[in-house]
Amino acid sequence: MTVPALQLENINKSFPGTRALQNVSFQAYPGQVNALVGANGAGKSTLIKIVSGAISKDSGEILINGQKTDIRGPAHAQTLGISVIYQDFSVLPNLTIAENLFLGREFGKSLIINNRKQRERAVAMLEKVGLGGFDPDTLASNLSNPRKQMLEIAKALSLDSKVILMDEPSAVLTEAELGYLYGQLEILKEHGIAIIFVSHRIDEVLRVSDTITVLKDGRNTDFMTKEQASHERIVAAMVGRSLSREPLLAKVPPANEPILEVRDLHWGRTVHGINLSLYCGEIVGLAGLVGSGRTETAHCIFGSLPYERGEIRFKGRKVRFGQPKDAVNVGIGLVPEDRKGQGILKDINVCQNISLASLDLFSRFGVIDSKHEDRIAKRFVKSMKIRTPSTKQTVGNLSGGNQQKVVFSKWLSCNSEVLILDEPTQGIDVGARDEIYHILRSLASAGKAVLVISSDLEEVTRICDRILVMYKGTVVKELKNNQATEEILLLYSTGRGN
Amino acid sequence: MVSEKGAELILNSKNFFKRLFENKETGVIIALIVLIVFFSLTAENFLSSSNFINVARQVSIIAIMALGMTVVIIAGGIDLSVGSVMGLSGVFAAVLMMNYNLPVFVAGLGGVIVGGVLGLFNGTINAFFKVPSFIATLAMLSIARGIALLYTEAKPIYNLPDSFTNLGTGYVGHVPIPVIVMMLIFSLFYFLMRYTKIGRYAYSIGGNADVARLSGINVRRYMISFFVISGIMAGLAGVILAARMASGEPTAGVGYELDVIAAVVLGGTSLAGGRGSMLGTMAGAFVMGVLSNGLAMLNVPPFVQMILSGLIILLAVGIGMRKSKEIVK
Fold first, then answer.
1. Are residues A303 and A391 in the same domain?
2. Do the chains contact at B218 and A327, CB–CB below 8 Å?
3. CB 3.0 to 4.6 Å from A263: which of A47, A218, A311, B303, for a disulfide?
4. Contact, A272 vs A234, CB < 8 A?
5. Do residues A359 and A417 share a domain?
6. Is residue A129 part of a domain?
């Protein structure tokens, strides 16, 4: 094999209380996609920070093109030819494409920027990444996520980077937009760039990677080339055991009477006459593409969006929730898609997050019985297997999977009977994901009605007893689990069924 | 060889210090102790019970307002109108007393209620018309002051009865009544923020209003009630100030909002919302009081005092910011 463009040898890094990396090695070869895979907390982010120069290693060696180097800071990393593209892009929305591209190194000798020259260079860079035809004066805020990503890649190329690290690049893209990303990877490979591709989506890693390095608990657990790699091998290295992919379905039929019925629901231009029924004891999937109106449907039911037309019945009675409080009071819980923005309070501890929706249950005259509160929280930490040092831990310090379990606990502690989950495992690694599936199934078995919105077709076919496929604001197809395959689901969710 | 129990004790004490330094109030409390020690050593008459009582009385009015302000700031808002609200409340109480001959107690209560009503207005504008609290209360700052000046034709209302001024100048034992009021309010708010739903919801809404709303909290109603609380405290402070000056001054409390916010921020409460404490605010108010008292005793010229106060606020908040960054990392 050729000399790696970037090579890390026996890197160690400790933080107070934890050894984040122990003798970790990693190579990135030019013209290849080098995947870095691991569950949350495996040490991926620490490694990324070391490569980007954000933090320094404790010991170990870094070699660039075979030459021993030290990365002394983010700016130094850039001069060494390393660019990092973060999940939440560093594109400034209020600047134009050209201004973004040359931010901090504007053309022109004095204070005045040579806009004409900058624009010309921008056009050339944009063509390289397939954004030709875009006016460099377009405001970056007008670009879609995949286009923003392309802009970042163009910026990296214009910096003459030899190593481009992409942190979970697919996390912000929809299924349909992934094509753009894969195209970009090909272009970068042609340019001889060493790509470091950080991800925990195994199928995607298998699809795009040439080499795969797996980390677990801060150590290397496996390295494989494209030819050697398989789904099972990656999972085994990530979680230390193999996971079943068998469907997890209801063993008994659901209740006879629906607990929640939605008839002909309309909201704005995204929800067009939704009909659905939920029964206690089952998990129903709401599949479809991003933008098909699934999230909006959930928020209409929950009272956080005001629907214009239609009817919602809860236990046979007609209801209309003016605000989420009303839905919560009858026993509906919503686990929102945007966990950090809408699900958890990151500065507040585990116990207080869990009790947020149910304080009425353990307070008298507005005074909280904190012993009772903590007892309930401890019960959920145990039953949900939330990995936290104590119930007093700040939720922002937990991993994504554990944060999500805290959100579940919040709704279970107020005895919700209907749970609506919007992309419950987004950004959560395989191990924790599997635990969440088992939790959801046990909730359904305990008599809850569960509605799961998911873009992950594998997830839908694994845990949902019934699947509703949405397309352009309506439910176009209902399938039993045994009728659903990923192909059929994709067909209906793109409007090509029937 | 350390016994198991001994090892545990050592560990616990380590945790104790770690937790102590993670607490955002620690910085301001240390600053307070440093200032007290410094002035005790340099200013001759600083270290005496009569001086401490004096400082506490000076601090009490700002502290009462700052406690109410803390609730609003923790919930992610701000109340710039407190100075004007206190002015109008004092005038209103004086008017009820002098022009309408209402009993002193009723008139005082009337002043406090005016504060609450103005707070209700602030909160409603903020919650229902989605006007940012900075703007809504900035407008109220102007409106309330204008009403006070208009009604009194900018003339103070003098000669308030002794039974009223007692509230500002009287003592119970050796302790001034305003200090007692401040301690009662502090205890109440300390309890409110730690052990009640309204306190918990203030932290939650300030942490992330979306999460709070989607957890079934009536965010608008609570936001309004936080502004009412702040208004009531400003009203109470206004009535006490009028009692101390024995007159309803339409210009009372001009610029107080800045001292109040400074005390809150010094106490480690985050202007971004979601974090802060009543203990910190009290310490913050006392830092400012001790500072001005000590500097005056050292015969530092008043204008130099202003510069030094500003620098010390920068220093204290700067240290707090650095610490919180380290925790984030």
1. yes
2. no
3. A311
4. no
5. yes
6. no
The torsion of the CA quartet A414, A417, A420, A425, rounded to 10 degrees, works out to 70
Residues A100-157: tens digit of each pLDDT: 888 877 777 667 777 888 888 888 888 888 777 788 888 888 888 888 888 888 888 8
3-state helix/strand/coil string of chain B: CCCHHHHHHHHHHHHHHHHHHHCCHHHHHHHHHHHHHHHHHHCCCCCCHHHHHHHHHHHHHHHHHHHHHHHHHHCCCCCCCHHHHHHHHHHHHHHHHHCCCCCHHHHHHHHHHHHHHHHHHHHHHHHHCCCCHHHHHHHHHHHHHHHHHHHHCCCCECCCCHHHHHHHHCEECCEEHHHHHHHHHHHHHHHHHHHEHHHHHHHHHHHCHHHHHHCCCCHHHHHHHHHHHHHHHHHHHHHHHHHHHCCECCCCCCCHHHHHHHHHHHCCCCCCCCCCCHHHHHHHHHHHHHHHHHHHHCCCCHHHHHHHHHHHHHHHHHHHHHHHHHHHC
**B272 interface with A at CB cutoff 8 Å:** no
Residue type, A293: G
Length of chain B: 329
- Give the up-direction half-sphere exposure of residue B292: CA atoms within 13 A in the CB hemisphere: 16
Which structure tokens are listed for A131? 């954004």
Please name the member of B197, B198, B216 whose beta carbon is closest to the beta carbon of A324: B216
Q: Which of residues 404-423 of A touch B (CB under 8 A)?
A: 410, 414
- Residue A359 to residue B197, Cβ atoms within 8 A: yes
A347 touches chain B (CB under 8 A): yes
Q: What is the model's pTM? A: 0.81
A433 shares a domain with A336: yes
- Smallest Cα distance from A118 to chain B, Å: 37
What pLDDT band is residue A281 in, cutting at 50, 70 and 90? very high
Q: Which residue of B has its CA nearest to A299?
A: B214
Q: Give me the interface pTM, i.e. the ipTM.
A: 0.81
User: What is the residue type of A112?
Assistant: I
Q: How many domains does chain A have?
A: 2
Question: Is the per-residue pLDDT at B326 higher than 80?
Answer: no
**Residue A192 is part of which domain span?**
6-91+143-239
Give me the helix-helix angle, B82-98 and B49-74, nearest 10°. 110
Pair of tokens at residue A133: 């035809």
Any idea what the CATH number is for the domain that residue A46 is in? Answer: 3.40.50.300
Are A179 and A299 contained in the same domain?
Answer: no
Considering CB atoms only, which of A325, A342, A345 is closest to B216? A325
Q: Are residues A361 and A415 in the same domain?
A: yes
